[in-house]
UniProtKB/TrEMBL annotation:
Family under the similarity heading: Belongs to the Gfo/Idh/MocA family.
InterPro entries found in the cross-reference section: Gfo/Idh/MocA-like_OxRdtase_N (IPR000683), Gfo/Idh/MocA_domain (IPR050984), GFO_IDH_MocA-like_dom (IPR055170), NAD(P)-bd_dom_sf (IPR036291)
Domain Gfo/Idh/MocA-like oxidoreductase N-terminal intervals: 5-123
Pfam families assigned: GFO_IDH_MocA, GFO_IDH_MocA_C3
Domain named GFO/IDH/MocA-like oxidoreductase: residues: 136-252
Organism of derivation: Paenibacillus lactis
Protein name (Swiss-Prot/TrEMBL): Dehydrogenase
Record's keyword terms, sorted: Oxidoreductase
Organism domain of life: Bacteria
Length: 331
């Protein structure tokens, strides 16, 4: 086996601490070599807590470290473009949290910078690296549920009381469509292997939360009169189901995006009845890291390209435009 991919972490965000860093540390092909924060004490404390050897008091210092191969960026959304480009220009491969940018144009600029620097830029939709999604696509391709007639999905949680949450800063790219609505959109594109034709979204923009969308409901139209209907929110009960409706059957995924490591099973309903489909246990964050390591170290094609991230942002742009204008947006 070739050497491991050496990671630096730009920031001490909760998602990095509780999920991404442990996932990389548990993976086969990766090691977390350094972490940086604008508060040196914060970086040092987290490094000690998570057994990371090196901590830096600035992002720039980490990017200058020649022993770092790749960086993970869990910074607030409005900083994704700047630090992804700076990392690429420093010769580092980049895994950037979703949404990869604030607009399609920003994402395209980031993609160009990565291509120019000859590095990989990947969007951190970890859920899609879990083996469950390959299994779902196999069932769809087999015709087990017939032709797909529609997809329904949701991703909601309630953090409305946390007034200091960065997700409630409009100028920082806050809002539920950016934060969790991006998941059903991404999943529908993967499962249908198509790009949408139009979107219509209604949203609740909360004055108490800097007028970001705290709840949104949308219709995403694909060719063949197949649609994704979704809702997303940061002021609603926790849930993240996915339902794929076919002419001959139905697939139900109770926890589609926030995956329990040992609870990724789903349900298949056909003319023969409803049965639970067992899915192998896996850490989606570890799987994500190993696929990126294979691309960097072994030269394997990146499964989800930067262009895929740009296309996902195109749909998010349209959803936000539709919500603000209360109109149907053709893509």
């Amino acid at each position: 086996m070739s050497k491991k991919l050496r990671w630096g972490i730009l920031g001490c965000a909760s998602i990095a601490k509780r999920a991404v860093i442990p996932g990389l540390q548990q993976s086969r092909r990766n090691e977390v070599a350094a972490i940086a924060s604008r508060q040196e004490d914060k970086a040092r404390q987290l490094a000690e807590e998570l057994n990371i050897n090196i901590s830096y008091g600035s992002y720039e210092a980490l990017l200058e470290d020649p022993n770092i191969d790749a960086v993970y960026i869990p910074l607030p959304n409005h900083l994704h473009k700047e630090w992804s480009i700076r990392a690429a220009e420093a010769g580092k491969h980049v895994l950037c949290e979703k949404p990869i940018a604030l607009t399609e144009a920003e994402a395209a600029e980031m993609a160009d910078a990565a291509a120019k620097a000859g590095v990989i830029l990947a969007e951190a939709f970890m859920y899609r690296y879990h083996p469950r999604y390959d299994i779902l696509k196999e069932y769809i391709a087999s015709g087990a549920i017939g032709e797909i007639r529609g997809i329904r999905s949701a991703f909601t949680f309630n953090s409305s009381a946390n007034q200091g949450n960065v997700r409630f800063r409009k100028d920082w790219g806050g809002g539920s469509i950016y934060d969790v609505g991006c998941y059903p959109i991404n999943a529908a594109r993967i499962l249908l292997d198509k790009e949408p034709e139009a979107v219509t979204v209604q949203a609740f923009f909360s004055p108490e939360h800097d007028h970001v969308d705290m709840m949104a409901s949308g219709l995403v139209e694909f060719e063949g009169a197949v649609s994704l209907t979704f809702d997303c929110g940061m002021w609603a009960a926790y849930r993240n189901p996915l339902e794929i409706v076919g002419t001959e059957g139905l697939i139900e995924v109770p926890y589609a995006y926030s995956l329990p490591e040992n609870g990724a099973n789903f349900f298949l309903t056909t003319g023969e009845g409803r049965k639970e489909i067992e899915v192998p246990s896996a850490n989606a964050y570890s799987e994500q890291g190993d696929r990126i390591a294979e691309a960097v170290l072994d030269g394997k094609p990146l499964r989800y390209t930067t262009e895929d991230a740009v296309r996902n942002m195109r749909v998010i742009d349209a959803c936000l435009k539709s919500a603000h204008e209360r109109s149907r947006i053709v893509l």
